[in-house]
Amino acid sequence: MATETHGADKAAEAGGLVFHPMDQFIVKPLFGDGAVGMFTITNVTLWLFLAIVTITIMMVVGTSRRAIVPSRSQSVAEMAYGFIHKMVEDVAGKDGLVYFPYIMTLFMFIVTANFLGLIPMSFTTTSHFAVTVVLALAVFLTVTILGFVKNGAGFLSLFWPSSAPAPLRPVLAIIELISYFVRPVSHSIRLAGNVMAGHAVIKVFAGFAAVAAISPLTIVAITAMYGLEILVAFIQAYVFTILTCVYLKDALHPAH
Fold it and tell me: 234, CA 20 to 30 Å: which among 108, 112, 168, 248?
């Protein structure tokens, strides 16, 4: 191990490239170089704040002067509104439209944070489980509490497959119960994992571009990966949101 480290140091001294794709995910204090504490303002804090500011500018300031012929910001806001409104209505039903503001906020935050993370030298907040787990647990607790409030003990029918043969029902009920409590885990890991993997791959390609013999080819590969990440940034926000709508439907109509 010491030999490998010494070799890497020699490569760096000789003008070679030593890069670590995961360094971009390190949480650092925004001011100074001290330890990160509970109330430390970090790069995560900064980019979470910028995501909120961006959403506010686009959805509030951008639509403050509504017109029949919309501006660009108004068009983007209206498209996002219509897109999520239709998603909630189609998946959760008209009863789910009551919770549209929460789902809309969730989608806008995730998609904005994902796109901000594609800016060079930025920090991708949705690549951290500390962020995605909070979002997933908020959804999980919300739909679970809502399910009991709306249906009482009838919410437990979600875990009892009445259409299955009687001998299999207890086994299937256990499986359904386990899968239900795994939801926040898969919900959070899917988002953070995909975002982190994509950014790490871009960093690797960028590192190769600096030392590759045919750098134009590598630059083309980076551009293609960057385009793919733009698509992934939207798709992951979409997947997280549509799963939230599915969970909301289960809470509102557990017997269906």
Answer: 248
Three-class DSSP category at 220: helix
Q: How far is CA 170 from CA 63, 166, 177, 253, in A?
A: 53, 8, 11, 21
pLDDT tens-place string over residues 105-133: 999 999 999 999 988 888 999 999 989 99
Q: Which residues contact 3 (CB under 8 A, 6 or more apart)?
A: none
Q: How far apart are CA 126 and CA 193, in angstroms?
A: 9
Please provide the distance, in angstroms rounded to a whole number, between the alpha carbons at the two ends of the chain.
58
* 8 Å CB contact between 23 and 123: no
Domains of the chain by residue range: 17-252
Q: Contact, 192 vs 117, CB < 8 A?
A: no
- Single-letter code of the amino acid located at 256: H
Q: Which residues pair with 163 in a beta bridge?
A: none
Residue pair 250/158 in contact by the 8 Å Cβ criterion = yes
Nearest to 58 by CA among 69, 74, 71: 74
Is the per-residue pLDDT at 91 higher than 50?
Answer: yes
- Single-letter residue type at 178: I
Cα separation, 55 vs 91, in Å, equals: 25
Percentage of the chain lying above the pLDDT 90 cut = 45
Q: Which residue has the higher pLDDT, 204 or 230?
A: 230
Taking Cα atoms as reference points, which of 220, 211, 229, 216 lies closest to residue 126?
229
Model confidence pLDDT, tens digit, residues 212-247:
555 677 777 778 888 889 999 999 999 999 999 999
Strand partners, 29: 42
Q: For residue 188, give the amino acid letter.
A: S
pLDDT for residue 213? 57
